[in-house]
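pinned: reference chain
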Amino acid sequence: MFEYAGAIHIHSHCSDGSGSLKTIVKAARRAGAHFIVISDHNNMKIKRERRSAWSDDVLVIVGEEISPRYNHYLALGIQDEIPPNQESAQANIDAVASQGGVGFISHPFATHKAQPTCKRLDKLLGLDVTVYPWDDLDVEGFDGIEVWQYMYDWVKHVNTFNAVTHAIAPGRFITGPDHRALAMWDAVNLKRKVVGIGTLDAHAKPRVLGMFKACSYRYLFSTIRTHILLPKELTGDAEEDEAEVIASLRYGSCFIANDSLADASGFGFQIRSGGFRYQMGDECPLYNNAELFVVLPRDGEIRILCNGLLIFSREGGSLCMPISHAGNYRIEARLNGRPWIYSNMIYVV
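pinned: its C-alpha cells
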C-alpha cells in the first residue's frame, strides 16, 4: 500500500481565511503534506479558476464547506457549489450525494468555554470565538465525521488570561477528539459504515489585536492529518489522483494522526482471517484463525476497541492477538500519554 498524508479543511482568502492558494501550497510543501483540501465557505472559486492541480508537489483538492448557521457540512468530489439550506441539514447532505460527492459532518460538538467575566476584553483582543456545532443528530446518509479537528480542540478553552500560552505553545492544549464525537462515530457504525477523518479548520487569521497569528498554515499542516492508503502510487494526473484520494476517504482506507507529536507514517492495522488480509474500511469474515495486527512507527500505548469499547491495551511498537468475536475494530495509539493515532474500522462479521 502507498501512504499519503493530507491536510483537510482549509480556508483561503476566498472566504474567511488569510492566505492565497500560493501561500497555502507553499506552507503545505514545507510541512510535508502530500495533498490538501481547500473548503471555503459556500464557494469553490479556486476550483472554478484552476480545477484540480498538482502545485509544487502538492495535490490541491477543492471542495466546499456548506455553511448554514449551524450544521456545517464538508463536501468533496462535487462539481457545482451548493448554496446552504438554512432550514435542513438533511437537504445539504442530499445535495452532496446528488452530485456523487462525499460529505463529512464538520466539528459536530464544537464548544468554546469563555470566561463570563472577560467577554468584553476577549472581543477587544480578537478572542471572541463563534463556534458552529452540529445540532441535528437525526440526519442520514452522511459519509463521515470530522472526528478530530485541530482548531476546535485548541480553541475550546482559550480566553484573555491564557491566550499567550495558547499562542506560543498551541500543541500543549490539544487533548484529542471530543469523547462525544467518538461515541457518535462508534454508534453510527453499528448501523452502517461511517468514516472518520482528522481535519484542521485552518484560517491562519491574525487574532490578538488583529496582529498575531496563533496558528499559521505552516504550523497547522504539520499537526492533525489524515493518512490515506492506496493500492497504487499517485500518477501525477491531477483529476485521476483527486478521484483516488476521495475514493480512499469515502471507503475509510485511512487513519488520523497528530503528526506534530511524531510522524505516524508507517502505522499499520490489519486483520488476517481465512488466509486473507483485511485493511481499514474492509468487511472481514470471522474464521477460527483470525488475528489482529498493529504496528506503530515508534513505541507507544496501543489500544484496541471493539464497538467503541476498550478491550485490550499494552505498551510497545507492535501487537498481534487472536480475535474470536464479530464487531467493529479500531485502534487508538497514545504517545507519552497524549493522543496520537486513530484508525478507521475493520468490520468483522
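why pinned: The chain has a mean pLDDT of 92. The first strand starts at residue 2 and ends at 10.
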